[in-house]
């Protein structure tokens, strides 16, 4: 292995591997790429611990378009990343997302978001209480003023399949992967010139890409740069249901969507079971190695909300749980992507705030375009650049889960 690369990517999960894949597939790029991953098992990577969803129901246009491109990639993924045969089948379940609003403010936000989504061509409809009850008769809708439902283009898929597909394709195209940890960056005259590894080696780099997930602020700090990103813990539960409502819907062949209750609790089918989670009542930053599930969230937050929403969820039993991290952007809950003005060869791909998996394809393509062509050629992500952080100018995403 050489000691000098044109591009060093810090983090080899879905974001880092997407960047490596798009970069090495560009015919105008002939450089050398190294991906440094501290844990090649990916046991605690946000990629593998996520709820694995993709949706177009966002509050701003660019996030809608990012997801629409992600959907294109997911639908054709097996062929797009084929290496000596088809890549992984991501088993995309097009179940849709269902947002419920129970007060005037929430209703207004759904209507505003819907206008943005439909202007982008997203297949999202608004339902009143009666229409909602007809579509999903198991729900208690007495308090619901409005619902937004994604009829197509939304659902859930194989999270690790997406990562491993990008990773395998990137390696086949020449990217190198190294199991090690970046513990420092070498900087000179406003540029990063290399990465220092835990093993003791120093690797020279023409460009460094920060794709380190919840550790993004730590990596940026090695270059004297600040990012408003914190690791925030999210616990996910899988539960069995004595009287499952799956199959009772009058839309989408009886399949239930991922429902977001007004309490913030979400729930979706997971095979014969259901997967659920909720924003915690208190949401502090946690240690990078803190993955202890918050067991009490199921009894105190999730079960009461689900039982109130549907009689079918009164008798449920948790059978599995885990905790993962959001790389939470405290400024505006939105992706931070692009060159850092104070260090132009340091590129950020961070702060997804729970949306990284679905936004990985567009982010990987965008970062590759910056490196190879000096600017965006497909989807312009300039509004999501680092400049807004330095100017304290939030580009807020309201529809986070």
Automatic annotation (TrEMBL):
The keyword DNA-binding does not apply. Keywords: Oxidoreductase. It comes from the Bacteria. Gene3D superfamilies: D-Amino Acid Oxidase, subunit A, domain 2, FAD/NAD(P)-binding domain. SUPFAM superfamilies: FAD/NAD(P)-binding domain. Residues 6-370 form the FAD dependent oxidoreductase domain. Pfam families: DAO. This is FAD-binding oxidoreductase.
């Amino acid at each position: 292995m050489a000691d000098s690369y044109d591009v060093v990517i810090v983090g080899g999960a879905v974001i880092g591997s997407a960047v490596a894949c798009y970069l090495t597939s560009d015919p105008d790029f002939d450089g050398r790429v190294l991906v440094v991953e501290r844990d090649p098992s990916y046991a605690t990577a946000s990629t593998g611990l996520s709820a694995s969803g993709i949706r177009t129901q966002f509050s701003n246009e660019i996030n809608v378009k990012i997801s629409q491109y992600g959907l294109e990639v997911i639908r054709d993924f097996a062929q797009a990343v084929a290496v000596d045969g088809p890549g992984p089948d991501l088993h995309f379940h097009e179940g849709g997302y269902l947002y419920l609003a129970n007060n005037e403010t929430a209703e207004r936000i759904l209507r505003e978001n819907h206008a943005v989504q439909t202007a982008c061509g997203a297949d999202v409809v608004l339902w009143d209480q009666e229409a909602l009850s007809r579509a999903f008769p198991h729900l208690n809708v007495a308090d619901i003023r409005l619902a937004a439902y994604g009829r197509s283009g939304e659902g859930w898929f194989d999270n690790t399949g997406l990562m491993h597909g990008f990773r395998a394709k990137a390696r086949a195209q020449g990217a190198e992967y190294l199991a090690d940890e970046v513990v420092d960056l070498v900087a000179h005259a406003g540029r990063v010139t290399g990465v220092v590894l835990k093993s003791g080696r120093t690797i020279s780099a023409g460009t460094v890409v920060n794709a380190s997930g919840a550790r993004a602020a730590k990596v940026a700090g090695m270059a004297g740069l600040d990012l408003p990103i914190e690791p925030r813990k999210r616990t996910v539960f899988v539960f069995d249901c004595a009287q499952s409502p799956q199959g009772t819907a009058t839309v989408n062949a009886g399949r239930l969507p991922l429902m977001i209750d007004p309490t913030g609790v979400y729930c979706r089918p997971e095979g014969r079971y259901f997967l659920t989670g909720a924003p915690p009542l208190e949401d502090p930053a946690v240690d990078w190695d803190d993955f202890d599930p918050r067991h009490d969230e199921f009894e105190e937050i999730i079960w009461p909300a689900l039982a109130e929403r549907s009689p079918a969820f009164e008798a449920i039993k948790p059978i599995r749980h885990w905790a993962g991290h959001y790389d939470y952007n405290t400024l505006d809950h939105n992706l931070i992507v692009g060159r850092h003005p104070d260090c132009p060869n340091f590129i950020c791909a961070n702060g997804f705030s729970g949306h990284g998996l679905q936004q990985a394809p567009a982010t990987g393509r965008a970062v590759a375009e910056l490196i190879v062509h000096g600017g965006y050629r497909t989807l312009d992500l300039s509004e999501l650049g680092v400049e807004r952080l330095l100017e304290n100018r939030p580009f807020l995403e309201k529809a986070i889960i």
